[in-house]
Specification:
Blueprint lengths: L4 E8 L3 H12 L4 E4 L15 E3 L8 H18 L6 E6 L8 H10 L8 E3 L1 H8 L5 E10 L1 H8 L6 E4 L6 E5 L2 E5 L5 E10 L5 H6 L7 E13 L13 E4 L1 E3 L3 E2 L5 E6 L3 E2 L8 H15 L10 E13 L5 E4 L6 E5 L5 H16 L5 H5 L4 H7 L32
Parallel strand pairs: 1-2, 1-10, 2-7, 4-12, 10-19
Antiparallel strand pairs: 3-6, 4-6, 5-6, 8-9, 9-10, 11-15, 11-16, 11-17, 12-13, 13-15, 14-15, 18-19
Helix pairs in contact: 1-5, 1-8, 2-8
The structure holds flavin-adenine dinucleotide (FAD).
Length: about 400
């Protein structure tokens, strides 16, 4: 019998998480094998063509806000030169008076420099984003196609072995290496270190080594609306990304003169059906009206003309799960990216590469990443007997001046 291929490092899953981590390891001079159950990279949730990235400033624990700031800086450094749209407006809550100094103070407390997040009046927002709503302007926020980015990260090179259409079912410890087996218990590969970045199926793979993570699916639908140039919406469509409760990207003109406007997204917990639904389009029409503060607009004039549907993977506490599993030496996890695939994969790439390759965490430390933040992400926060993560000391609710951020966490 031929011995299975052995690799120093294997990544399970070629989504944005697995691809970012593999790319980081390769860029540090190491070889990596990526094994993917589908035909190639970026086919599952990371087939998303219109993902946005910005730091989060509202709703959620201080831990989450600190982490999104750090992750945004990393994502900007990694992909900022590839953003497809640059600049996002986060309007303040309706009915709250715009107070530039108070918001600036709050942003400063979150460690957000003005070039990252700047308070803007309604007039300034109108010039920057085409929407006259006071809020916070993220000058360096942007949008990426996760599908293209994932594929680019896994461009063939000498240090990369890619194995597609192979579904890993279980991990088995043998001596000081890990065996990766399929559903028929065939040994597919062996490895010294395994990084599980398979989205929701990470749950099943890790259960084979008695690690139970509270992962659940959350279906999401983005709607592509067609807008007639003569109707009242057309003059209001934004020129920049707008985020808050939901998000939308700048509208573009189609060949026949109609406008195409992408708005999202629904947040359907525990659902895995990835067919488009008209009720999700209706939900997105409402989000569209909320984002533009145009409650009186006739939502039927936003005509559904395409959708993107994906199944997110979310953890019980809505933070991603990124880190080593000390109870299972050589196993690392990067999953539960929720609706922040860009941010969390940028962070996972640095953190997991440092852990796998025994790096010095210098870059992360410079950005303010602490051991308490690492504990808040670590998979063993969910495991019986593990030290509880240091969330309590860091958690607090954000100041209510700023509007809520999307529910999709
Ligand atoms: C509607 C919607 C809107 C969103 N908006 C945004 C946004 O604006 N900004 C943002 O940053 N993020 C957004 N996201 C989230 C983002 O798409 C995800 O967080 C991200 O794609 C998850 O990446 P992943 O690599 O963890 O998982 P996946 O992309 O699911 O990758 C996991 C990979 O593992 C493979 N795999 C699974 N099981 C196995 C196995 N047993 N063996 C081998 N391979 C396996 C899968 O085939 C897949 O390729 C959105 C998601 C949705 C659904």
């Amino acid at each position: 019998m031929i011995a299975p291929q052995h690799h120093g490092i294997v990544v399970i899953g070629a989504g944005i998480a697995g691809a970012s981590i593999a790319h980081e390891i390769i860029s540090r001079g190491y070889a990596v094998c990526v094994v993917e159950s589908e035909s190639g990279p970026g086919t599952a949730c990371s087939s998303h063509p219109y993902a946005i990235a910005h730091p989060h400033i509202t709703r959620g624990s201080a831990t989450l806000l600190q982490l999104t700031r750090i992750a945004f800086e990393l994502a900007l450094a990694r992909w900022g030169d590839q953003w497809l749209h640059r600049g996002a407006l986060h309007p303040i809550k309706n009915g709250i008076e715009f107070n530039r100094e108070a918001i600036a103070l709050q942003l400063n407390k979150l460690g957000l420099r003005p070039e990252i997040a700047l308070p803007v009046s309604a007039e300034e927002a109108s010039q920057l984003a085409g929407v006259a709503r006071a809020g916070v302007w993220f000058a360096n926020a942007g949008m990426l196609s996760l599908e293209k980015t994932t594929q680019q990260l896994l461009q063939p090179c000498a240090q990369l072995t890619q194995i597609n259409q192979v579904k890993i079912d279980a991990l088995v410890r043998e001596g000081n290496r890990w065996l990766l087996t399929d559903a028929a218990k065939n040994i597919i590969l062996s490895a010294d270190k395994v990084i599980v970045a398979a989205g929701l199926p990470s749950k099943k793979i890790l259960s084979s080594i008695q690690i139970k993570l509270p992962l659940k699916p959350v279906r999401g639908q983005l709607s592509f609306f067609r807008v007639k140039p003569t109707n009242d919406w057309a003059a209001r469509l934004p020129r920049a990304i707008i985020c808050g409760d939901g998000y939308c990207i700048p509208a573009n003109r189609l060949e026949n003169g109609d406008m195409r406007w992408i708005v999202g997204s629904s947040f359907d917990e525990n659902e895995t059906d990835n067919h488009p639904r008209s009720e999700s389009d209706r939900f997105n029409q409402e989000q569209a009206a909320g984002l533009l503060n145009y409650a009186e607009g006739d939502q039927s004039e936003l005509m559904p003309d395409g959708q993107f549907v994906g199944i997110r993977c979310v953890a019980g506490d809505r933070l991603p799960i990124i880190g080593a599993l000390p109870q299972r030496p050589g196993i690392f996890v990067a999953t539960a990216l929720g609706s922040r695939g860009i941010l969390w994969s940028a962070l996972a790439a640095k953190l997991i590469a440092d852990q796998v390759l025994a790096g010095d965490f210098a870059l992360l430390a410079r950005l303010g990443f602490t051991s308490a933040l690492a504990a808040a992400l670590a998979p063993d926060r969910f495991l019986a007997g593990a030290t509880p993560p240091a969330l309590g000391a860091l958690a607090s609710n954000s100041n209510p001046i700023l509007p809520p951020s999307p529910r999709a966490k």
